[in-house]
Design goal:
Length: about 130
Amino acid sequence: MSDARLEQNRQTVLAFYQAGIIDKDFGTASKLLSDGYVQHNPRIADGLEGFREFVESLKERFPHLRAEVKRIFAEGDHVIAHVHGVRVPGGPGAAIVDIFRMQDGRIAEHWDVMQQIPDEARNRNGMF
């Protein structure tokens, strides 16, 4: 895959975070998802409607949620992002790894793994 295509995939995922998670704008974010979008997080329903429900839930439950992409990698048709997500201002938040499969420049599939950031750590390395 060309470097330009990999960069386009990275930019699509970054735009998706901005629209769908930070701005909670389903209309804009949905344009970045394929028609057959597959969701692997068991708490979110499949497809565009499942993502719409998720965005609406974020608006209600976590209106001040923020997400900061710390690292982003693209290889082949996958983009992997290491994200600091904070649902409630002032809280430590969670370390998140999101995996996206791209198809024709849009997000076709999503997996995630989340780990709450503890108050104390047994090392000084941090999670990011």
